[in-house]
UniProtKB/TrEMBL annotation:
It comes from the Bacteria. GO terms for biological process: transmembrane transport. This is ABC transporter permease. Signal peptide: none annotated. Belongs to the binding-protein-dependent transport system permease family. CysTW subfamily. It is a multi-pass membrane protein.
Amino acid sequence: MRNMISDAPRTTLTAFYWAFLLYLLLPLTLMMAMSFKDANFVAFPIGDWTLDWYAKVMADKQFLEACLYSVMIAAASTLAATTLGTWIAMLIVAEGIKGQVIIFALACLPAVVPGMISAISLRIFISTIDMPTGTAAIILGHTVHAVPFVVVMALTRLRSMPGNLVDAARDLGADSVVAFFRITLPYLGPALVGGMIFCVLLSIDDFVRTFFLGGYRPTLPMLIFAKVQGGMSPEINAMATLVLVVTAAVGLYAEYLTRRARTR
């Protein structure tokens, strides 16, 4: 009887887990299935299965340009966020710096502010400094949003770093700059690579900030949003499926790097 009572919460949690998993995966599965539909509309039943929509997407010049533009913005914002995030993490763990808790809280603030509020505040900011909407404004917005993730990952790695490594380098005559590039930065490598991959995924997927800060040149989310306004079609499903597969593969690789960094 006691075992039956103790097993009841476990069974309930298992049921909730599978229900939640179904809630997450069922729409994605339906989206991917519709991308192989041979007709011009999205609805069941699926007649013949075809790869024509994927061929059409890969031949779509507008789609390829939007992909390249999104990757360019992601690369620039990731580089900036990684540089700023690493510097902030180093500042937080440095000795003799006051207000480290406040610095950490401010650095992580963009991650907890709702996307709409963040986008509106960034739009007001660029208007105040007379920065035009477009590529530079989008990179700024994506950088601000990505910095907290780099800070957290770099900080976790730095706190596991033996302090005697840097001390030994300084005893051998290395100054702070040499010790950073020869000791600290290589030790941070796995965490920074994982953080950079997450930054790329955040940037490519960021619709709200891009919508408020962008110009006339569309990123990938903006292009898909514009196409949806004309009605759903298997071509849009094919675009979304390609993005999903690539981002899932990159995200899993980032998770692998993060786990490996924690075990070292």
